[in-house]
Amino acid sequence: MCSMLDPGLVLYLPLQRLDGTSLLSGDASGRLVMNSGAFWTFQGMNFDGIDDLINCGGNSAFNSQQYTLTCWFRTTAFSPDTDIGHRLVNIARASGGESKIALRLKNNIADLFWIKPNTIGDSVPTDITVNNGQWHHLVGTTDGTIFSVYLNGDYKASKLSSLHTNFYCLCIGSIHTGTGSYNGTLGEIRLYNRVLTSLEIQRNYLATKQWYR
Question: Which of 59, 143, 168, 187 could form a disulfide with 44 if both were Cys (CB 3.0 to 4.6 A apart)?
Fold first, then answer.
């Protein structure tokens, strides 16, 4: 399991252990993030699909061309077949809500979504329906060229592409403008500014799945 002191871990939110409107991240930097509406349950925080979100702000540590985004989630809600879909973890590139990269649910399929420098969207889907009321561990990685997605510790797919360089802020459960609101529960969230290996991803999944049965 990757250490909480890993210098590449720029955000760690174990939502099953956090409550209130101000949340302190568990990574080495101890970042204060703001919760608007999501409420605590013993396995994570519940989002209502209307206006709940956790705003992590615009810290420069969240701006990179290399990422690993991870989250545990559980939902029974339908996610629309649109580019916005439902956002689990969203990094925006502009104040108007334009995305840079995100973990997303679209038409009940989990995927990694991003925007290329020409502002055209791209994605790598898992091709697995996930609105079944079960817990799932979703991971997306990129080195700026190769974009990969994993589900429940298993590699699913990759694509060659490119990533927009702009950055604005990071939000959990929605885009910061309030669109793409997720309806369900989110557990542990992690953001790295490096690409985790397949072995590291599988170890993280195995080390944390005990909380999500």
Answer: 187
